[in-house]
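[#protein-structures] MJ: dropping DUF2721 domain-containing protein here for a structure pass
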Amino acid sequence: MELQLSTPALLFSAITLMMLAYTNRFLATASLIRGLHKNFLKNPDEGMIVGQISNLKLRLSMIKYMQLCGVLSFLLCVICMYLIFMEIQPAANYVFVSSMLALLISLGISLIEILISTKALNLEIKDMEGHLEKRSLGLDFWFKKDKKDE
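AK: finished. structure tokens for DUF2721 domain-containing protein:
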């Protein structure tokens, strides 16, 4: 199969949208970390915060590698287009396959990061459910309760 110049160019819009989504994830995670930092400074002994810190560190690392593989895929697409333009077809084929592989790795890491982030959200929900159960059992007088909640 001979690659046309338009074949790797089709990936440009997909990779660009994917990078935008990854940037949004990074910004959301950075916002969570900043909020968690404020909560940590107020109450450094809270156990939930310690668990979230390791989770967010892992997610940040994964987002970094997702973006790295996405940029690599984009770069390889450009190189592939150059090789097609220069009529070096065998090398263009290998570079295009490499670009697709980098894109696949990026998407795989993205899937794992989504699973980790939903696990963290389920921990938050479980924590809230525990507080709701204590209140519904009439045991809330044992726990600190702000006047704002009443």
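MJ: nice. Residues 6-139 form one domain.
AK: one more thing. The chain has a mean pLDDT of 83.
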